[in-house]
Amino acid sequence: MQAIKLYNFPRSGHAHRVELMLSLLQLPVESIFVDLAKGEHKQAQFLAVNPFGQVPAIDDQGVVLADSNAILVYLAQKYGNGRWLPADPVGAANVQRWLSVAAGPIAFGPGRARLITVFGAPYNAEETIAYAHTWLKLIDQELANSTYLVGNQPTIADVAAYSYIAHAPEGNVSLEDYANLRAWLARVEALPGFVGMPRTVAGLQKSA
Fold this sequence. Notes:
Elements: E1 4-8, H1 13-24, E2 29-33, H2 44-47, E3 57-60, E4 63-66, H3 68-79, H4 89-119, H5 125-142, H6 156-166, H7 179-189, H8 204-207
Parallel strand pairs: 1-2
Antiparallel strand pairs: 1-3, 3-4
Helix pairs in contact: 1-3, 1-6, 4-5, 4-6
């Protein structure tokens, strides 16, 4: 099988979702580094791949796709053998629910908190951290009765949610109070083919 091209920035949680999914599916990958710090994502060469100027994007033998959650759906449907995305209406809807949470509250909570400390983004840290904890508490409650986010088998919902939650402490968002959440993170990390996102020490001193 020809390698799937992944346009990647290793410290992007959105890009890591796709990198993780490709690894879990054991698919061959050609990783193409897009240097966000140098603005390569806004240059003509990359805009020809994704006009929105965002990582990640993939090129699967001429099928070019952007948006991390959309890519997860594609990979699960094409290569997941029915495992990562339920075919039944209720299961599919429940996965979509979590994809929306990953794109909204998780990105704007723990994801944004990490942007402040790691990348110097000009957001209000106190408000962002409070918002993150509101949603982490809710997610922790949901995981009290479920092994994974949608039932007892991992789905792309878990892949979409993992990266920014796992790295929340880098944004001074402690996970200490969320035992169910931490147990879920450990289960995801134990999946065959798991690959992590590079960690940074930013924020860790204050989150302990």
